[in-house]
Design goal:
Blueprint (H helix, E strand, L loop, with lengths): L1 E4 L14 H9 L3 E5 L10 H6 L3 E3 L2 H7 L2 E3 L6 H4 L7 E4 L7 H10 L2 E4 L14 H18 L21 E5 L3 H12 L3 E6 L2 H11 L3 E5 L2 H9 L3 E4 L14 H5 L6 E4 L20 E4 L2 E4 L9 H22 L1 H7 L1 H4 L2 E4 L2 E2 L2 H7 L6 H5 L5
Parallel strand pairs: 1-2, 1-4, 2-3, 4-5, 5-6, 7-8, 7-10, 8-9, 10-11, 11-13
Antiparallel strand pairs: 6-14, 12-13, 14-15
Helix pairs in contact: 6-7, 11-12
């Protein structure tokens, strides 16, 4: 199969779809890989490095899309990229379609086969291609929040862990999934006063067993959420509903009652955000202020550490990329129910129920859409 890797063009995004080691695996299995010139610079991989493992180098995105049968990316395609998609293309990347009507419309119009990393599942019910970036984002959320609490960033001038004789900052983590666990781990490590909310008692049990008296846990009712958010110095939104828009749990009214210089970090912003006052930001302009509360809502947080993120992501995606290349998309999707759960758009049809519901499309089961693909 011909596989293309374009340079990511989302603002300040320096990850790349395939590492040199992943390219080598594909080439040695008999596939052709073309990488856009400069695509790997964010991870320290030059064009010569990619050539050394058997890739060819394309001069621009148009050449990559023209060459490729499968396009492997990291972030959702931007308008200039969706314009280059063809019905015979397989697109393998993060999509986050539920809050993005324009991208969904463009992918439907392209009739390409679009597989979203974030909805591929595993036997335990997890999301194995989302998990690596959730780990990175959870850890980065604490770093970003701690930095935003500094006075030059508009924060209250608090050191997250305090010092002897001065209390640490109060950190509230909403959601005890992969993002939440990693945020808690970082915040505890820095000595913060940490409370985590969730509605699943087994999740709270696991957190209590793992972190013991280092954290507090709370069942997430509206009252508990309001009390804890209003009293927090740093709130991290770590909520996920597979494929769907994130619920708005932190209301604008809560934000109005927070202390001046408090910080909100909305890790769910890719899925629309779990805070009413949240809107997507970029690494170049990561924060803004509402009611004297600093908001950090970067929509591609792991892109700030591209080397760590790209290698962690490829460790998870490579087996699926190999399956798609070796078997062809139709067969690979038919044979693997977990990969098939990643199919969001195919043959002009929306095949992810949460996306269809969020955006008003008719939902078509993946099997029905796959029947329309050529062998």
């Amino acid at each position: 199969m011909r596989i293309g890797v374009p340079t990511e063009i989302k603002t300040a995004e320096r990850r790349v779809g395939l590492t040199p080691s992943s390219v080598r695996e594909l080439v040695e299995d008999g596939h052709e890989v073309m990488v856009q010139s400069g695509a790997g610079m964010g991870i320290g991989a030059t064009d010569d490095v990619y050539k050394g493992v058997g890739a060819s180098i394309g001069s621009d995105a148009a050449e990559i899309f023209d060459f490729a049968k499968m396009v492997v990316k990291v972030k959702e395609p931007q308008p200039s990229e969706t314009d280059m998609l063809r019905p015979d293309h397989v697109l393998f990347t993060y999509l986050h379609l539920a809050p993005d009507a324009e991208q969904t419309k463009a992918l439907v119009a392209s009739e390409a086969t679009c597989i979203a990393y974030e909805t591929v599942t595993d036997a335990s019910g997890g999301l194995p291609l989302l998990a690596p970036m959730s780990k990175v984002a959870g850890r980065m959320a604490v770093q970003a929040g701690a930095h935003s609490l500094e006075s030059p960033q508009g924060g209250a001038g608090l050191l997250l862990g305090g010092v002897p004789g001065v209390a640490p900052a109060r950190v509230v983590v909403i959601g005890g999934g992969v993002v939440g666990v990693n945020a808690v781990e970082m915040a505890v490590g820095l000595g913060a006063d940490v409370t985590v909310l969730d509605r699943q008692l087994d999740v709270l049990d696991d957190l209590a067993a793992r972190f013991g008296p280092s954290i507090k846990t709370a069942y997430s009712t509206r009252a508990a959420l309001e009390d804890l958010v209003v009293d927090a110095d740093l709130v991290i939104g770590a909520v996920l509903v597979k494929g769907a828009r994130a619920p708005k749990l932190v209301t604008a009214e809560m934000v109005k009652h927070m202390r001046s210089g408090s910080v909100l970090v909305d890790v769910a912003i890719d899925q629309g955000g779990c805070m009413e006052t949240a809107r997507p930001t970029t690494h170049t302009e990561p924060t803004y202020v509402v009611d004297e509360v600093v908001h950090y809502c970067v929509a591609n947080m792991p892109g700030g550490v591209p080397k760590t993120s790209t290698y962690a992501l490829n460790n998870a995606t490579l087996p699926f990329t190999m399956a798609l290349a070796n078997k062809g998309a139709k067969v690979a999707l038919e044979q693997d129910a977990h990969l098939r759960n990643g199919l969001n758009v195919s043959a002009g049809l929306v095949t992810e129920a949460a996306v269809a519901e969020a955006l008003g499309y008719e939902y078509v089961p993946p099997d029905a859409a796959l029947a329309q693909l050529a062998d």
